[in-house]
Amino acid sequence: MKNVIKHSKKGILMVTMLATLLSFANDASLFNVKNDAKRTSLTLYNVKQGNLLSVKDINGVILFKELIQESGTYNKGFDLTALPNGAYIFELEKDLEINTIPFTVKANVVLFEKEKEKTIFKPMVVVKNNLVYLTKLALNGEPLKVEIYFNNSAENELVFKEKIENVKSIERIYKLEGLDLGKYKIVFHSNGRKFTKLLN
Length: 200
Known about the structure:
The strands form four sheets. Strands 4, 5, 7, 8, 9 and 10 form a six-stranded antiparallel beta sheet that branches. The protein has a four-stranded antiparallel beta sheet with strand order 1-15-12-11, with helices on one face. Strand 13 (144-151) and strand 14 (156-164) form a beta hairpin. The protein is built from one helix and 17 strands. The protein has one helix spanning 15-26; strands at residues 5-8, 31-35, 40-47, 52-57, 62-67, 72-78, 86-93, 97-106, 109-112, 118-121, 124-128, 131-137, 144-151, 156-164, 169-176, 183-190, 193-199. It has 200 residues and is mainly beta.
């Protein structure tokens, strides 16, 4: 089964997708926070219906989550002073990226840490025939671990893996053979997160 995948080291340029991601990366502020003694007002710009907003603690436990109902600008007030002392993040998950806004609560005072805000770009996968096109922005050269599994009904067999490092624009093509004989699962690990893509 190891020969099922022929991996091409030559990346392809998906101009439209990368241009879109770069425009997100270069946007001015995607959000605004107004903080007073009892209420934090969060305004998010350019959201789409179906984006997921959550508040998580330092261990990744979800304390609040909401699916955005309307595209455009999202505005909501939160009373964050009731949270126990500690570190938290607002997280906005979009189609191709995750925006994180860290803040701390100490003695009922909420402090936002603008210098620690970041955008995590998700891997984008497009499948055409037996070819899988992978693109991902890694503006800080953060590594991406790729694992491809084949399932022919009984078990998942790891047929290919690689770790891509120190590349700002990751582009790969994988050739999958035998799609008619079973299913593939591609697992990506990056920025301490796991993303999974199932191919039938």
